[in-house]
Amino acid sequence: MSTLPTTEPTVNPESAPFWEATARGVLLLPRCRECGEVIWYPRRFCPVCHSRAVEWFEASGRGSVYSYTVSMRGVGPWVAVTPYVVAYVELEEGPRVLTNLVDCDPDTLAIGQAVRVVFDDAGAYKVPRFTPADVVGGAQAAG
After folding, report:
1. Using one digit for the tens of pLDDT, what is the confidence trace for 34-77?
2. Global pTM?
3. Which domains does the chain have, with CATH numbers?
4. Judging by beta carbons within 10 Å of its beta carbon (0-12, 13-18, 19+), is residue 14 exposed, middle or buried?
5. Whole-number Å distance between alpha carbons of 75 and 81
């Protein structure tokens, strides 16, 4: 678990399956049964073909850094955790998610770097964040 602040998410009927899965440490994503589009953010219809035939599946939890920035300033509880990394991660399944990169040295991050999901406790649910794929148990693996 990272030291980044977490708050319990607001869960609505569209996002409930996603958040309920996070409580079990699972990254669950919606997919359109009509066109195959993997949907992010969770919703009841496909933004591509507008079908309501949406199903949920367990994602791999793997992806790559699409873009990132290192925040050197924070507000409120984020002041104590600077610098921290805000990133877009492109999941193996296709969507790009806005998240934090944790358990990493911001100076060694790179676009395209392999990452994997980790979860931070947030009350009844967990917040998915990502760490470099070579990080084991909160420490970067020796290379």
Report:
1. 999 999 999 999 999 999 999 999 999 999 999 999 999 989 99
2. 0.89
3. 16-135 (2.40.50.840)
4. middle
5. 10
Question: Taking Cα atoms as reference points, which of 28, 39, 88, 85 lies closest to residue 61?
Answer: 28
Which one-letter DSSP state was computed for residue 133?
T
Q: Which amino acid is present at 18?
A: F
pLDDT tens, position by position, 65-124: 999 999 999 899 999 999 999 999 999 999 999 999 999 999 999 999 999 999 999 989
Report whether 63 contacts 90 (CB < 8 A): yes
Distance CA 117, CA 97 (A): 11
**86 pairs with which residues across the strands?**
69, 100
**Nearby residues of 95 by Cβ (< 8 Å), 6 or more positions away:** 29, 38, 39, 40
Residue 9: which residues within 8 A CB-CB, separation 6 or more? Answer: 15, 19, 122, 125, 127
